[in-house]
Design a protein that fits this description.
It is built from 16 helices and eleven strands. The chain is α/β, with parallel strands linked by helices. α9 links the parallel β2 and β3. α5 runs antiparallel to α14, α7 packs across α13 and α15 crosses α16.
C-alpha cells in the first residue's frame, strides 16, 4: 500500500510563503534599486571600462546550485555589488569607444522597467492592444524623424541580425518559388539563389543566408573602393555573370554606415542595378540610421527611398537600451506571406481589422519593446535627439583632427559619422615595406591593449587594406570632449613608451 505524502503543515515543517513579495516590500526595494541604478550611473566612470577579471572568475565565486530557501533582496544586491559589477564591461562608461551598442538613457531604462512590470506578450492585438498600437505609433514617429517614405511600414525585432534575416526571407518569398511550401532540399528545379553585399558588410548577412538554407555559396561579396564602399560596377558585373551561369540573383544588401569604417555604399547606383534586374534592395542602416534624425545629415540616405526594406537599430545610437531593432519595408505583405501561420488556438475574432505581430516573423512571443523607444522620443524630443547625435559627430571630427595634425599618426578612413579609424605610424629609416607593416601592426595592437588595460578607455580594432586599425566610436550619451582628450593622451603615452 502506497503511503500518502504528508504536507509541510501536517509534518510541522514551515511551508515557504506563496505569491509574490508584498506591495510594501516591492516599494521599498524598488526605491532601493532605483537609487542603486542612479548611483551606478553617476559613478560609472570610477569603474574600469573593460572588465578586469579572468575567464571563469565570476562563475567560480557563485554557488553551484540555487538556494533551497529564498534570500533577502539586501543580500542579493550586495552580491551584485561585490561580484557582478567587477565582472562587467561598462557599456555605460563615457569612454566606452569599442562598439556601437552604447546608447542607453534614463527614459529608456524607465521604459524597460515598465515593460517588465506589464509583462505582456504582444503576439496578437488581443493579447496586448497597447503594445501592438504603441509599436505602430513609435515607428511612425521614428520614420518621420528619419525622413523615410510614408509607405515604409515597420516592425520591431531584437537585433539587426534578426531584422536582416527576415528581410532576406521576404526577398526570397517574393520570388514565388514555393519555398515556404516545398522547401529547398532535393529540388532539381531550384538553382543556386544569390544574395549580394560588399566585402565590408556585417557578418550578420552571411549568418542570415546560412540560417535560411542558402549556404555561404549563396552570398557573393562585392569588392569595395578606396573608401570601403561597394563597387556598383562590380555588383552589376557579378549579377550578370551569375545570370549567365544559371543562378537566381534575388537580393542586394547595401550598407549605410559599415561596422568597420561607417562607409556609405552608393545606394542610388545600386538601386539602379536592383531595378534593372528586379532584385530586392535591403539597406543595412543599423548604426547610421539614427543619424538621419539630424536634418542636415540626412543626405546619406539618398536612394534609400527606392529600397524594399531598411533596418535601423535605436539601441545603437538613439539612446534606447539594447535590444531594439526596427525593420521598415514597403512590402510588408510579402513578409507576412513568408511567416504568417495561425493555428486554431491563436485565431481571434478581430480578423483583418487589426495587426497581429506574430504574422511578421519567426517569434511568437513579443516583448513590449516599443515602450522604451516611445519614452525616449517623448523625453528628448526630435531636437534633443538630433543635438546629441550632432555633438557626437563633432567630437569624432575633433578627435580625427588631433590625429591628422600629429606626426606619426594617421586617419585611415573618412569620418562619415562618429567613428574614427586610425593608427600610430612612426617612421623607422631603412625599413622594408614588409617589416614596416609587421612592426606597425604589432605596435598598434600593443597600444590598444595597453590603453584598454588602464581601465580609463576601451577601443577596438579592425583591418583595413590589411593594416591593423584602431577604432574609436563615439555614441554614449555621457561622452564629453574631456573623455576624448584623456583617451588621446593615453594613446600618445602608450605609443611613446614603445
Amino acid at each position: 500500500m502506497t503511503k500518502t505524502k504528508t504536507s509541510a503543515s501536517e509534518s510541522g515543517e514551515s511551508a515557504p510563503p506563496l505569491g509574490d513579495m508584498s506591495a510594501e516590500e516591492f516599494r521599498r526595494h524598488g526605491h532601493q534599486i532605483i537609487n542603486w541604478i542612479s548611483d551606478y550611473l553617476t559613478r560609472v566612470e570610477e569603474f574600469p571600462v573593460l572588465a578586469q577579471v579572468e575567464p571563469g572568475e565570476l562563475e567560480s565565486k557563485l554557488p553551484a546550485t540555487a538556494p533551497a530557501h529564498g534570500e533577502s533582496m539586501d543580500a542579493i544586491l550586495a552580491d551584485v555589488d561585490r561580484l557582478v559589477v567587477p565582472a562587467l564591461t561598462h557599456w555605460n562608461h563615457p569612454a566606452f569607444f569599442a562598439y556601437f551598442s552604447i546608447s542607453s538613457s534614463a527614459p529608456g531604462i524607465f521604459g524597460e522597467l515598465l515593460a517588465a512590470a506589464f509583462n505582456v506578450n504582444g503576439m496578437l492585438w488581443r493579447t496586448s492592444p497597447a503594445s501592438t498600437e504603441m509599436e505602430q505609433v513609435a515607428l511612425s514617429w521614428l520614420r518621420e524623424m528619419m525622413g523615410l517614405p510614408a509607405e515604409f511600414d515597420g516592425i520591431i525585432y531584437d537585433t539587426a541580425s534578426v531584422s536582416t534575416m527576415h528581410a532576406i526571407a521576404a526577398a526570397r518569398e517574393a520570388l514565388d518559388l514555393r519555398i515556404r511550401e516545398d522547401g529547398m532540399s532535393g529540388r532539381a528545379d531550384l538553382p543556386l539563389l544569390r544574395v549580394y553585399c560588399s566585402e565590408q558588410a556585417h557578418s550578420s548577412i552571411e549568418k542570415a543566408v546560412i540560417t535560411l538554407g542558402l549556404g555561404q555559396r549563396g552570398l557573393r561579396k562585392i569588392p569595395t573602393d578606396a573608401e570601403f564602399r561597394m563597387d556598383a560596377d562590380a555588383l552589376a558585373a557579378a549579377v550578370e555573370e551569375d545570370l549567365r551561369d544559371g543562378m537566381i540573383p534575388f537580393c542586394v544588401v547595401a550598407t549605410v554606415g559599415t561596422t568597420s569604417t561607417t562607409s556609405i555604399d552608393p545606394v542610388p547606383v545600386i538601386a539602379d542595378v536592383c531595378e534593372q534586374h528586379k532584385l530586392w534592395l535591403h539597406i543595412d542602416a543599423a548604426y547610421a540610421g539614427s543619424a538621419a534624425v539630424v536634418p542636415e545629415m540626412r543626405n546619406f540616405l539618398d536612394g534609400c527611398a527606392r529600397a524594399d526594406s531598411l533596418v535601423t537599430n535605436p539601441h545603437k545610437w538613439l539612446f534606447t537600451p539594447i535590444d531594439l531593432s526596427v525593420l521598415y519595408s514597403r512590402r510588408m505583405d510579402i513578409l507576412r506571406r513568408a511567416f504568417s501561420l495561425v493555428p486554431e488556438y491563436l485565431r481571434t475574432g478581430e480578423g483583418e481589422t487589426v495587426r497581429n505581430q506574430m504574422d511578421y516573423g519567426i517569434q511568437l512571443g513579443r516583448r513590449f519593446r516599443s515602450l522604451k523607444l516611445w519614452m525616449v522620443m517623448r523625453y528628448f524630443g526630435h531636437e534633443g535627439l538630433a543635438a546629441r547625435i550632432r555633438e557626437h559627430c563633432r567630437l569624432a571630427r575633433l578627435f580625427a583632427g588631433w590625429i591628422e595634425e600629429t606626426d606619426g599618426w594617421e586617419v585611415l578612413a573618412p569620418v562619415s559619422f562618429a567613428t574614427v579609424c586610425f593608427r600610430a605610424c612612426p617612421v623607422v629609416a631603412g625599413e622594408t615595406e614588409e617589416a614596416r607593416a609587421a612592426r606597425l601592426d604589432d605596435l598598434n595592437e600593443k597600444i590598444m591593449n595597453a590603453v584598454n588595460a588602464t581601465g580609463e578607455a576601451f577601443l577596438s580594432h579592425t583591418r583595413l587594406h590589411n593594416m591593423l586599425t584602431l577604432r574609436l566610436a563615439v555614441g554614449n550619451i555621457r561622452t564629453a570632449e574631456a573623455h576624448l582628450e584623456r583617451t588621446w593622451q593615453l594613446l600618445r603615452r602608450e605609443s611613446a613608451a614603445r
